[in-house]
Amino acid sequence: MIMVSACLAGKPVRYNGTSAADTIVEQLIAEKKALSVCPELLGGFVTPREPAEIVGGTGYDVLDGKAKVIEYSGTDVTSMYIEGAAHALAIAKEQDVDLVVLKENSPSCGSSVIYDGTFQDQKQAGAGVTTAMFRRAGIRVISEAELEQELAGV
Q1: What digits encode the pLDDT tens for the residues 72-130?
Q2: CB 73 within 8 A of CB 33
Q3: Cα angle at 101 between 85 and 32, to 5 degrees?
């Protein structure tokens, strides 16, 4: 089973109330080959919500207590990101997920690129909190940009 970010499945769950619909993801959902989750909603956030970025590192650093997830206003929402990632991981294990496709750049879902914590629209190499948790649990995570190539190789 494949797990995908709910925003890629066309659900308006991103911080600003929009989706990031991806045609391939929507097809996988329609064919019942994938299930969608939004780790941020699982962590207790609502839509819309303030933008947040990882300050002081990457998702791995957040899990290790060395970095935090901070909203634009300065509110520390680290615990909600960790809680959402843990809920998503529990669902992945329950559903025997072996591949996860998450939305790039997100402090939760970014798989290779995240925003740098300055709220200046600057990106850096790194993984979000959910990606880091999944990878530590041995579950493979890719971005939506890698999905077509992944499916072609299957």
Answers
A1: 999 999 999 999 999 999 999 999 999 999 999 999 999 999 999 999 999 999 999 99
A2: no
A3: 105
- CA-CA distance, 70 to 119, in Å (whole number)? 10
Q: How many CB atoms neighbour CB 41 within 10 A? A: 17
Greatest Cα pair distance, the chain, in angstroms, is: 44
User: Residue 11, SS3?
Assistant: coil
Residue type (1 letter), 97 = V
Strand order in the sheet with 2-5: 34-37, 2-5, 99-102, 140-143
What span, in angstroms and rounded, lies between the C-alpha atoms of 8 and 21? 4
